[in-house]
Q: What sequence folds into this?
């Protein structure tokens, strides 16, 4: 799980543009490898490398959806629930802090 592994460096995770793009897309909805490849315009091999990196760190998880009408199953990726919860909590704290300091929330 993302929160329990103190060795994860969020700056390392977010320092790579491809990983940031993957996370931006997955924040909207789950996606499979070919969708990410088309959207980001990076090779499948590179996308897969980043997906494995993110999955090993518990930031994303995957699930299989059976194909319909004889099509092969697809492996979808999504952001792990604990990461989404952390993201919402951080946004809420930043909003509160900004409003308290007289600024505008996110």
A:
């Amino acid at each position: 799980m993302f929160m329990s592994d103190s060795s994860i460096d969020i700056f390392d995770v977010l320092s790579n543009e491809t990983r940031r793009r993957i996370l931006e897309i997955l924040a909207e909805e789950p996606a499979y490898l070919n969708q990410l490849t088309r959207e980001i315009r990076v090779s499948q091999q590179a996308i897969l490398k980043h997906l494995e990196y993110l999955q090993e760190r518990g930031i994303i998880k995957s699930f299989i959806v059976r194909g319909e009408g004889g099509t092969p199953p697809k492996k979808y990726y999504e952001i792990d629930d604990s990461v989404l919860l952390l993201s919402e909590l951080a946004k809420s704290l930043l909003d509160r802090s900004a409003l308290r300091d007289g600024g505008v929330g996110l």
About this structure: Residues 65 and 74 are 5 Å apart (CA to CA). The first helix runs from residue 10 to 14. The domain at 10-80 is CATH 1.10.10.10 (Arc Repressor Mutant, subunit A).
